[in-house]
Amino acid sequence: MLSQVGSTSQKQKVGELSLFTMSDDKILDVVYATHVHDDDSFDVDSMLLVVENIIKRSSLIVDNIVQGTQFHTETIDEKPPKASFSSPLCTLKSVCCELSCKPPGEEFAHKSTLGILNKLSKYSWDAKAVLTLAAFALDYGDFWLLAQLNQSDQALAKSLAILRRVPVLLKPVDLQNRRQEVVELNSLIKATLQVTQIIFELEKLTSYDPKDVPALSQAMDHTPVDVYWAILTIVACSTKINILTSEEDKPHDLSPYAQKIHYILNKLKIHLIICKKQIEEAENYRKLRKLFRTPTEIMEIFKALIFTKDNVQPIIDGSTSTMVTIDVLRKTNVLFFISSLDVTEEDISILIPVYEATKNDNRYNIVWIPIVEQWTEELKKKFEDLRTKMPWYVVQYFSPIAGIKYIKEEWHFKGKPTVVVMNPQGKVENLNALHLIRVWGMKVFPFNKTAEETISNDKNWIGLVFNSVDPIIQTWIKEDKYILFYGGKDNDWIQQFTKKATALVYDSIIKEAKISIELFCVGKTAKAEEDLGTIGRFWTGIESLFFTKAHKQVDQVTQEILKLLSYKNESGWALLSKGSTVVVAGHGFTIIKVVEELEKWKEIVKEKGFELVFKEYYSKVIQSVHHCSRLDIPRVAGKVPETVNCPECLRTMEAFISYKCCHIDGPANAHY
């Protein structure tokens, strides 16, 4: 719905509604009926240049005569139209007829606007606005040119001025009384020119691929309504001039038109800024894609990734808090730490050992690139606080970075921290090494694909994940003990399992068989705000492991990780290991059944061994218990695989999209 800006002094109606309370849809229905097709042959660009020149010069004359300023029209920088441009004079005069000598009021203005639209039916929407403004400028410029010449002794100018009723307005008494009205009129004409200019500029942007400028379609959908209001305002201004140059003093308030046109102007300015930003991002995106196809030097890549055009700035050396040139990155391997300002101290701490190990090696550097769409003073303060916690290089660039589209689309950045590893030639060695670093640390330095492939065959993932949860687990692993890990979202299930598992551990037959089992509960709740707690570290480690293996051939370790990850949001789960080797991992319903039915299988332990008996009974139970497997993968964590096979039956899992909000600062996370 258009904003209501009508005044109580103007209550003439169009049908049952005031123009200023009519909806966009209702106006669209009316104006679309006047539109036939677009005539692309008309030179809108040249016509708009001529109109701009006339209105700018006329506005200066108004200021000089009415307000006593001393601006010289010679100082205006004019752009000439094309030499081949020919003014459609007959069309302009026809439009002038619809503008001239109309009585005040919304109904008459609306009727004249529709008359103009019908006469300009074959022109594009931006051309309709430009031609109407040109017809108005024909009289408006003529009037003020004569007003200027009237002050000289040119007899012809004086005579023409009399016919134009210039002296009526310029009488000292009348001019004094009507000065404010003339100033407001002049201001409204300039605002309407701006609206027309932006409509024309947006029309020119339609030459770009719509995928590059998604915001443009919304602006263009509204163009007919904006053109209607621009023409209506021109009609109202023409009527106001007629009143000001007559002996009558008819009421004709332009304030509702001014409010409406300024509302449209502000809206169009925002649309134009967004569209230009999207175009710049698209152009930078194509530039970066070209650079990465033929990489040459990492510093050139960095410049194109961060800075727009020639606006290259120094970066901060976090170890000394001093500014240094980007030359420090030349011919080095760089770990780009990319994040929003919601990055946590734990995220930062993951890179500290890497920094400590490489700070004296001039072949390696770490650079933090903060991703911020719109900087504010509050965000700048938050940035300052965060950068003091980072001893490595920091990009301080309080504008959206040039390569933001590339980072989001090609590097799959969705808000969560990521580490992109790049060699001195600007070639990406790893799109997100943060998962590797989080799980293996410096064991996989320098975090390229070769190092990742080497370590991916390591089957000791139990120790890797659980060591960050509790160091005692490494001791149990070294002692090759059985460890029963368990957790879940249902506290009652956890209490039941703890009771039954404890009974298993201390059962006389199990003890007699010299089976040593340690119990480890991974927390009692699963809340996102506990990122620094046991549960947060555990599941973050599991997810990181998943992403290091997600795009590789599925092996036994990947299946084990997938299975455990599928239990993340279940009421209960458990995993039995022998040292670092997984014996079995299962849903809470199945594992608790195995444990509580201990009496049915414990007698066989001495004969077959605890591990084999446990696995066999679990296989028997799982055949009688059916449940659907669900795998929640945070989209913000990296590139999500297009398909995932079920960790239980190996069928391709169905994909759904769900949304999650934990009511804390930062964007809601989308999950599959």
Strand order, biggest sheet?
2-1-5-4-3-6-7
Query: How does the helix and strand content classify structurally?
Result: alpha+beta
**Radius of gyration from CA coordinates:** 37 Å
Mass-distribution shape: elongated
Strands, total number: 13
**Helix count, per DSSP?**
27
Distance between the termini: 36 Å
InterPro entries: SEO_C, SEO_N, SEOA
Domain Sieve element occlusion N-terminal: 23-295
Domain Sieve element occlusion C-terminal: 452-663
Organism: Trema orientale
Verbal overview:
By secondary structure, the chain is an alpha+beta fold. The protein contains 27 helices and 13 strands. The protein has three domains: 33-283, no CATH class; 298-456, Glutaredoxin; 461-653. The chain has helices spanning 24-32, 44-66, 89-99, 106-119, 125-149, 155-163, 166-170, 172-204, 214-221, 223-244, 255-293, 298-306, 345-358, 377-387, 404-409, 434-440, 449-455, 461-467, 472-478, 491-505, 508-512, 534-549, 556-565, 588-596, 598-601, 605-608, 610-624; strands spanning 315-317, 322-324, 333-339, 364-370, 393-394, 418-422, 428-430, 482-487, 517-521, 573-578, 581-587, 658-660, 669-671. A hairpin with an 8-residue loop joins strand 12 and strand 13 (669-671). The longest helix has 39 residues, at 255-293.
What is this structure's SSE topology?
Blueprint: H1 24-32, H2 44-66, H3 89-99, H4 106-119, H5 125-149, H6 155-163, H7 166-170, H8 172-204, H9 214-221, H10 223-244, H11 255-293, H12 298-306, E1 315-317, E2 322-324, E3 333-339, H13 345-358, E4 364-370, H14 377-387, E5 393-394, H15 404-409, E6 418-422, E7 428-430, H16 434-440, H17 449-455, H18 461-467, H19 472-478, E8 482-487, H20 491-505, H21 508-512, E9 517-521, H22 534-549, H23 556-565, E10 573-578, E11 581-587, H24 588-596, H25 598-601, H26 605-608, H27 610-624, E12 658-660, E13 669-671
Parallel strand pairs: 3-4, 4-5, 8-9
Antiparallel strand pairs: 1-2, 1-5, 3-6, 6-7, 8-10, 10-11, 12-13
Helix pairs in contact: 2-5, 2-8, 3-4, 3-5, 4-10, 5-6, 5-8, 5-10, 8-10, 8-11, 9-11, 10-11, 16-22, 18-22, 20-24, 22-23, 24-27
